[in-house]
Amino acid sequence: MRPALFLAATLALGTAASCAINPVTGQRELSLISESQEIQIGRDADQEISSSMGLYEDEALQRYVQDLGARMARDSERPNLPWTFRVIDDPVVNAFALPGGFVYVTRGILAHFSSEAELAGVLGHEIGHVTAKHGVNRVSQAQVAQLGLGIGSILAPDLGGAFEIAGLGFSLLFLRHGRDAERQADDLGLDYMTSEGYDPREMAATFEMLARASGARDGERLPGFLSTHPDPLDRRERILARIDAGEVDGSRVDRDSYLQRLSGMPFGENPREGFFRQGRFHHPDLRFRMDFPSDWRTLNQKQGVQAVSPEQDALLVLTLASESTAAQARDAFARQQGVTASGARGATVNGLNAARMEFQAALQDGGRLQGTAMFIEHGGLVYRILGYAPEARWAARSPRIMDAIGSFRDETDAAILAVQPRRIELVRLPESMTLEGFHQRYPSTVSMEEIGTINRVRAGQAISRGTLLKRVTGGQLP
């Protein structure tokens, strides 16, 4: 959990439809969005995504990805867009693009690549989505259908800023591309990477890796490339067919230089940003813990932690408030439009200064919510904990909610405070060996199968002496 920018953004789109030439196909198509509007949409969404999802804190790696992406984009059909490439601090294997030239790769997908050519293929794919205006077309279709994007929210009620966990940027991410758009982006990405001299077989290998990665480590959601329609192995075969037909070629791979950039990178979830163990949430960096109901479904995100009752009729939401004191945060919450506050008072929670109130809020369907809002000062920050349910269910749900709120306290367990993430370590093989031999001699804190996936090697495969391989060390939870 980190502080988040809760962005209340709307699309300022013109109402007059016009025809425009698609820069990739050369065909005329209906467009509701000018290029300047497209860029503004992307720029606004980029601010939200960068703040809420969090950028990976490695300036050298950020510059490297920006330079590589910008170089490829300059040779695309839309070189004059404000091309921006960012590394998101997210363990999930994913990459995505927004209208206007804003492209993102996660540290999770970087950890699974084995060469710069693989990264170039994925960046090229995302550049293709932008140059072919796939995102713009999806937004236009939504506007025509009068769906709009509005302000997305993980939570059902609309209580203003306190619950705006997802805004414009996240709404754009849910506008999925279809089969034809994905195939076109594959073809464009292949063209873009080979125009820079990269080996197109590395892009084919990427899809094989993504298929293996979809084994869903620790219940993670599918990689972004697999969350849409085309099967990744089918996409690999299409690429290989283009190579065999002599349509594309290249030899540049840049394996070792790429791998060196990954040394020390966190692998998987970073427990320093919070983790659950048997219903208890620990946050080593912020030095607090809180007990959530053990049978509630929980989710830790950069912008907050939430829990949903098994019946999905009550929620607990923990976020950071922007105010300096608990009382100020309570009063600011009470002033929100649609909120009816009562019983505002000071409080203490396990020795921590706090402020509390009860509240009600109207639902869009005419019903009402009832809940408790607690604001707790800890470590120079103010934490906002909201527990609420439909009015008719509040009496049944409030005891467990209040127990959870009352459990917030300092984290004092030295082992918890010292926990570290798993990290990538590089090993240059002193002799030829198999994956099994590598895992035995250089053990990792993830499975041998996962080590094979991130190194693009399989069980029983001979690996040459001098090969640079990734292992994963550390990260054991106490």
| Secondary structure tally: strands | 21
The whole-angstrom Rg is 24 Å
The overall pLDDT, averaged over residues, is 86
Largest sheet features: 7 strands, antiparallel
Structural class: alpha+beta
Give the overall shape: globular
Q: Name the poorly predicted regions.
A: 2-17, 144-168, 216-224
Q: Count of helices?
A: 15
Strand order across the biggest sheet?
10-11-12-16-15-14-13
**DSSP strand content:** 15-25%
Secondary structure: helix percent: 25-40%
Number of domains: 3
Secondary-structure blueprint:
Layout: E1 18-21, E2 28-31, H1 35-53, H2 59-74, E3 84-88, E4 95-98, E5 102-106, H3 107-112, H4 116-131, H5 134-144, H6 168-173, H7 179-195, H8 201-213, H9 232-244, H10 255-260, E6 266-267, E7 275-277, E8 280-283, E9 288-291, E10 297-301, E11 304-308, E12 315-321, H11 326-334, E13 339-349, E14 352-362, E15 368-378, E16 381-390, H12 394-405, E17 409-410, H13 414-417, E18 422-428, E19 433-434, H14 435-441, H15 448-455, E20 462-463, E21 468-473
Parallel strand pairs: 3-5
Antiparallel strand pairs: 1-2, 4-5, 6-18, 7-8, 8-9, 9-17, 10-11, 11-12, 12-16, 13-14, 14-15, 15-16, 18-21, 19-20
Question: Can you put this structure into words, describing what you see?
Answer:
Helices cover 34% and strands 24% of the residues. It has helices spanning 35-53, 59-74, 107-112, 116-131, 134-144, 168-173, 179-195, 201-213, 232-244, 255-260, 326-334, 394-405, 414-417, 435-441, 448-455, and strands spanning 18-21, 28-31, 84-88, 95-98, 102-106, 266-267, 275-277, 280-283, 288-291, 297-301, 304-308, 315-321, 339-349, 352-362, 368-378, 381-390, 409-410, 422-428, 433-434, 462-463, 468-473. Strand 4 (95-98) and strand 5 form a beta hairpin. Helix 2 crosses helix 4 (116-131), helix 4 crosses helix 8 (201-213) and helix 8 (201-213) packs antiparallel against helix 9 (232-244). The protein is globular and about 75 Å long.
